[in-house]
Amino acid sequence: MSGTGDDLAAGGLCAVHLPRSGRSLIPRPWSAETAQAPEPELPRVGRFPAVQAGQPAIERLAPTSALVGYRGPTACAAAGITYRQLDYWARTGLLEPSVRSAYAAGAQRLYSFRDILMLKIVKRLLDAGVSLQNIRVAVSHLQSAEPADFAGLTLMCDGATVYECTSPQQMADLLGRGQGMFGIAVGAVGRELEASLGRLHGERTDTGETLVGNDPMDELAQRRNRAG
User: Fold this and answer.
1) Taking Cα atoms as reference points, which of 136, 177, 180, 181 lies closest to residue 155?
2) Which tens digits make up the pLDDT trace of 62-114?
3) Backbone angles phi, psi at 162, to 5 degrees
4) How many alpha carbons lie under 13 Å from residue 219 in its C-beta half-sphere?
5) 14 neighbors 134 (Cβ within 8 angstroms)
6) Cα(63)–Cα(61) distance, integer angstroms
7) The pTM is what?
């Protein structure tokens, strides 16, 4: 499905989430000494998460680091969405970039790892037929959750309602109702996303330097070219 999701906004059912640890989560139903002019400083380029042999030591940053942001095209590639969807969801407030918005003149949106994880989840819920109204509720809840909670979190969906499960028993209870269920293991999606972003370019949020992704296929092609 390649739509923005606005066609599902009307008439959505109320999202329901199972409580985690006994608390209700959603009824809210992610040298200056000379006179010469200094030479212009060349743009710095870093590498993450690895440093190539022969390069000076550069701070290693994981794709999940708060010091790494991703521009719109990279976010789209990692989340499997179109730029039209990304732009629509940002403009309507469904999911705005937390690192940098496009409100400032000439600024480009910059998304965090968590933002892109939310984008992937939105895409999967949308593909499962969940209404945009319910997706907004789920996103609002996930954005308020602690990242450490994601590892054991599974979202179960029957196409109309979204449930949050944090234990195998909760999932078994849902499946025992005899309804067809679609599951999203948030921790697994996060690990998949981390691997994808490690191969794509990022940007340091504190210095603005470019972080070049470590794509093994690119390095293999380079070695083949040198051998040829």
Assistant:
1) 181
2) 999 999 999 999 999 999 999 999 999 999 999 999 998 876 666 789 999 99
3) -110, 130
4) 10
5) yes
6) 6
7) 0.71
